[in-house]
Specification:
Number of helices: 12
Strand content: 15-25%
Largest sheet: 9 strands, mixed
Structural class: alpha/beta
Number of strands: 13
Distance between the termini: 50 Å
Low-confidence stretches: 342-361, 366-372
Order of helices and strands: HEEEHEHEHEHEHEEEEHHHHEEHH
Helix content: 25-40%
Length: 388
């Protein structure tokens, strides 16, 4: 077994300099998922256009995690955990109505904790106190919406600096909770083309300070939408989701199927129904010949060859070899989420912490600081002073 190399002690303040052999010897815990493939530990931005169904999505996720039931209709949340849902644009009547509709007669889980109003400072302190109370239970906090928590712009800072500082402060709070997660519901702007991160409203400091960003995008009057996920520690993915009476579910009954639905949609955009059927059939198989298409869709082989030729010319399918084709965008298996995810960087023990200092107290405020060596209360106090 490799000996653990201690963290160098000849450093100034918190600016520790480590060596490659020290880093190579470390063993970090794997990334923890709250909703597998969608919400991981740390801070996540959930953005979408106004009146698109973000609050329905946020509430459905909160209910599923609090009850330990399946999220998005099919993703196992493994176990129930405490959830603090700040529904800052809703009242108790609306929350009750929506929760009962989403739960289809099941009781609202007692693990769900709710806040509907408060000053910005009161809300931030409530979040910190609640996280301290549930720090050993890998809690989830959902803030709907970020605008209700966000302080007024400072004249001394640029908009980017203000956004990055505020979201970064919230990230510092949740990073001190091992396995904890925070989701900030936010709006997107009108831009729909290019990188979906550019659609997040405000400056790039908001998405830049977060660990991950999720955007929900769909056309008005459409039930189907695309849920795009990206972040520092998660593999970039897109999933097709559908809203029915407020309930969002993954299309196809799983992450791989939902991702394939997005890929198929991109490849079949602006083509006729018959060509779309050909492309979808090819994308569902590792290799396909004209005879396979003809047999599946009930057409002549020569007609199938014509479709294959045109689809290939338009770069909607790929030719593997003479007469053999496959889809352009095969979806990576869900197992790749684990392979691509880096180690967790949240609540990692510092050099000063040991097994014996689990119940150490902060010398400044005398509150428990845990093994991280940092005080969540002091971090929150600093955050409140900066954003007051």
């Amino acid at each position: 077994m490799t000996d653990v190399i201690p963290l160098p002690t000849d450093t100034t303040g918190s600016a520790a300099i480590v060596t490659g052999d020290w880093l190579d010897a470390q063993e970090f815990p794997p990334l923890r998922w709250v909703v597998y493939g969608v919400i991981a530990e740390g801070l996540t931005i959930l953005a979408g256009a106004p009146k698109l169904g973000k609050s329905w999505l946020a509430l459905s996720l909160a209910l599923a995690v609090a009850a330990g039931e399946k999220a998005l209709g099919c993703i196992d949340t493994e176990r129930a955990r405490p959830v603090l849902y700040l529904a800052l644009e809703d009242g108790y009547r609306r929350l009750q109505f929506r929760a009962r509709q989403l739960l289809d007669g099941e009781p609202i889980p007692e693990n769900l904790h709710l806040i509907i109003k408060g000053t910005r400072v009161e809300l931030r302190l409530a979040i910190v106190d609640w996280l301290e109370e549930h720090r050993d239970e890998q809690p989830l906090v959902i803030v709907d919406t970020l605008a209700k928590l966000r302080p007024a712009a400072s004249k001394s800072d640029s908009a980017y600096d203000a956004d990055y500082s505020f979201v970064g402060g919230l990230k510092a709070v949740i990073d001190e909770i091992t396995g904890g997660a925070m989701v900030l519901v936010h709006h997107t702007n009108k831009r729909q083309d290019g990188d979906f991160l550019d659609a997040v409203s405000g400056t790039q400091g908001i998405a830049g300070a977060a660990d991950a960003t999720i955007t929900l995008q769909r056309s008005r009057q459409e039930k189907t939408a695309t849920l795009s996920v990206t972040g520092r520690d998660v593999i970039e993915s897109e999933y097709s989701v559908t809203s029915t009476d407020g309930m969002w579910t993954l299309d196809g009954g799983g992450l791989e199927q939902a991702a394939q639905a997005v890929a198929d949609g991109k490849q079949t955009r602006n083509v006729g129904d018959r060509m779309a059927e050909v492309i979808k059939f090819i994308s569902s198989r590792p290799e396909t010949r004209a005879a396979d298409v003809a047999a599946h869709l009930g057409m002549e082989t020569n007609q199938a060859r014509s479709y294959l030729s045109r689809a290939h010319e338009n770069k909607r399918i790929t030719k593997v070899r003479l007469g053999v084709y496959r889809g352009v965008a095969p979806v990576a298996p869900v197992a790749d989420l684990e392979a691509a995810a880096t180690h967790a960087t949240h609540a990692t023990p510092s050099a000063a912490s040991t097994e014996d200092d689990e119940f150490a107290f902060c010398p400044a405020c005398h509150k428990p600081i845990g093994r991280s060596g940092k005080c969540v209360s002091c971090i929150a106090s600093k955050l409140n002073k900066e954003s007051a």
